[in-house]
Amino acid sequence: MPRSSTDRRRGSAGPQDAQRIMVDGDEVLVIRSPRRTRTVTADQVDGTLRLRVPSRLSRAQVDEHARAFQQKLRRRAEQRRRTDAELMRRALELSREHLDDIPRPTSVVWSDRQTTRWGSTTSTEGTIRLSSRLQKMPLWVQDAVLVHELAHLIEPGHGPRFQALVARYPRTREADAFLEGVSFAWSHPQ
């Protein structure tokens, strides 16, 4: 028997209405409760955002809360730390997408010993090390550093050919500015 998009649920807290809606292309399960008066809570179940809201909330208010929680979940996912294996997979993807699949690193790992540089490459061995300090930064910044190090597997220096390779990643300049700001903040603590 097919499930309807609205389920009637009864529990110790009284009757609740559960309804599946779409907010910005994402499915959201909204559970309305007459006993809930002010608070809105959210969690994620099998990849679907589940909101528990007061019954009186309008659709516009529900959408607003859903967007806020979706943004929070995206930020958390962005801050999730990549493993060394995930770094290697991402390096190969970036090589394919931006560098004609030419650089093929033999290993890509996080390094706690990288304290003055964001990354380093040993081109003769094909190894790349990224500073563990990058783990808390946005993934697009990590990607820019990976592309920089991958480009060193093709071109060892920082000349015009290298700069042209690095510029193939669309957020290179933005990532460079981000990292300059971080470096400045770390070197000038208040």
TrEMBL record:
Renumbered to this chain, the Basic and acidic residues biased-composition regions fall at 1-10
User: Gene3D superfamilies attached here?
Assistant: Metalloproteases ('zincins'), catalytic domain
Where does this protein come from, organism-wise? Nesterenkonia aethiopica
Annotated PANTHER family: UNCHARACTERIZED PROTEIN YGJP, UTP PYROPHOSPHATASE
- Name the chain's protein: M48 family metallopeptidase
Q: Where is the YgjP-like metallopeptidase domain?
A: 52-178
* Stretches for region Disordered: 1-20
Q: Which Pfam families match?
A: YgjP-like
